[in-house]
From TrEMBL:
Protein name: IS630 family transposase
Domain Tc1-like transposase DDE: 192-319
InterPro entries named in the record: MscS-like_channel, Tc1-like_DDE_dom, Transpos_IS630-like
Gene source species: Nonomuraea guangzhouensis
Pfam family, one: DDE_3
Source organism phylogeny: Bacteria, Bacillati, Actinomycetota, Actinomycetes, Streptosporangiales
NCBIfam families on file: transpos_IS630
Transmembrane segments: none
Length: 361
């Protein structure tokens, strides 16, 4: 049918209000919202080609819903029954799966399995899994959290984040920490290499060849790491690491160190060392807030790419691997990019505390 011969779409006031509501409300299904926009555009005038161009749709789509509306009015915009196997799960069963998953647990267990819940509701485990997937429910998963009780939480977050986002001029900022007792583990059998379709395989058991501690200072501006291996992580060992940082940082720069609240960082021997070197300033993170120390992100890279699948026949082999990892890292260094402001972090903490402080239902 040519556009010039199309039957015009004339809406009653009630139909226009209904269509505009469907087109604007977020809760409306996307298909129904699109059809409502098509009918409203047709009512404003213009043929199928013009409406299709305006809404960036296919002309046949506009023609179909125009004719459906003219034939059946608002009822014509609903989806027609589709061919295939009739639906066997009712809306009430879907609701029961969601409600039980969120508000109940089976007797003697901490969470539902899909088979337990399927037996309770009277549907298949596959259907339960599909409903969980559709609603983003994962009852088998859990995550840990710890809210800092530090009375200086706000001040410390503003201090540390300020160093990341707006570091002082003529200064170097380092995120500092130690990774204690890194084990030199040797697998009891040779590692079998990866093959097409087969991952690398390692024996379950291993032999321990001792441990070593790693002190690390991550330059937050450049990403470069200063590292020092030590047999222990006492206050005097931390002081020796500060000596190493002092040697490697240009003499004319102030040095700001971001540390956690470990007692060795506040020991008298460290305090005396700092008094003798006024260019060094320590900034402490809030308690239970290792996530704010950027060097922890570097330790995660070290664990994933060097230690987790490492096979060390001796303590010396482990030390050599750690020193090589630091050297390779510094040869192609990239800083971690901090994006969150202190206000954004604090706002999220406030909202989280508000959630967990409300009584459970």
């Amino acid at each position: 049918m040519a556009d010039s011969r199309l039957e015009p779409v004339v809406l009653s006031e009630a139909e226009r209000r209904t269509l505009m509501g469907w087109a604007r409300h977020r809760s409306t299904a996307q298909g129904l919202a699109m059809r409502s926009r098509i009918v409203l555009a047709c009512a404003e005038g213009g043929g199928n080609v013009a409406v299709a161009a305006r809404l960036r749709l296919d002309r046949k789509t506009v023609a179909r819903w125009r004719s459906r509306f003219l034939a059946h009015r608002l009822d014509g915009l609903s989806d027609e029954p589709r061919p295939g196997v009739p639906r066997t799960i009712t809306d009430a069963q879907v609701e029961e799966v969601v409600v039980r998953t969120l508000e109940e647990v089976p007797a003697g267990s901490t969470h539902w399995s899909k088979r337990e819940l399927a037996r309770r509701v009277g549907i298949s485990p596959t259907s339960v899994a599909g409903i969980w997937r559709a609603f983003g429910l994962q009852p088998w998963r859990t995550e840990d959290f710890k809210i800092s009780t530090d009375p200086l939480l706000i001040d410390k977050i503003r201090d540390v984040v300020g160093l990341y986002l707006a570091p002082p001029a003529h200064a170097a900022v380092f995120a500092v920490d130690e990774k204690p007792q890194i084990q030199a583990l040797q697998r009891s059998a040779p590692v079998l290499p990866m093959l097409p379709g087969v991952p690398e395989r390692r024996s379950f058991d291993y032999v321990r060849h001792g441990t070593v501690d790693l002190f690390a200072a991550l330059n937050t501006a450049t990403g470069e790491v200063i590292g020092k291996l030590s047999a222990r992580h006492r206050a005097v060992d931390f002081r020796d690491f500060l000596d190493e940082i002092d040697r490697q940082v240009e003499p004319g720069l102030a040095v700001h160190l971001i540390c956690d609240n470990l007692s060795t960082h506040k020991a008298p021997v460290v305090h005396a060392w700092l008094l003798a070197r006024p260019r060094f300033v320590l900034h402490f993170t809030p308690t239970y807030s290792s996530w704010i120390d950027q060097v922890e992100r570097w330790f995660a890279e070290l664990e994933r790419r060097c230690l987790e699948r490492g096979n060390f026949c001796s303590l010396d082999a482990l030390k050599a691997a750690l020193e090589k990892w630091i050297k390779v890292w510094n040869e192609d260094v990239k800083p971690f990019r901090w994006t969150k402001t202190a206000d954004q972090i604090l706002d999220r903490i406030y909202r989280y505390c508000d959630r967990i402080s409300k009584p459970a239902h």
